[in-house]
User: Fold this.
Amino acid sequence: MSTIGILLAIPEPYGGELRARRRAYGDPQAEIVPMHVTLLPPTEVDPAAAAQIEGHLAAIAARGRPFSMRLRGTGTFRPVSQVVFLRVERGLLECIELEAQVRAGVLERGLQFPYHPHVTIAHDLGDAALDVAQADLAGYEAEFEISGFGLYELQPDGMWRAVRTFPFPSVVRAAA
Assistant:
């Protein structure tokens, strides 16, 4: 078995900036997980299903379109889960639609919690560190284009690495 995840990567310079902040809060996940919005949480799959999974994801990407995402302010899942996150203010519906498509067919699975698009900035650090992260990024805002999603695999060294990206078709805008 292998463990995969499907992610909307946060592009540079925002991804690197947020990763540095997460590292500064003392979160060891900053070293092994890229900054992202999850479409499919860590899921064990049979490596023999790789071609079927990639076909499923390619079909979803082919139907998709680039969209704007705006991250703005922080939230938390405490006390249920020791997580502080950035809120997805724009692009929320696109994330929800993509997640539903990804978590179907060959990748159908239940979830521990209802899907809530977000970018984790601190996880399992204790209340004081989580409070610092939540206050520090309360005024954070970034806007960027999402042009596709990625298939990531958990490596034996504990790192998550991109296996393949699935770009959305470009949208050609008519001249005015």
In short: The chain has one domain: 2-167.
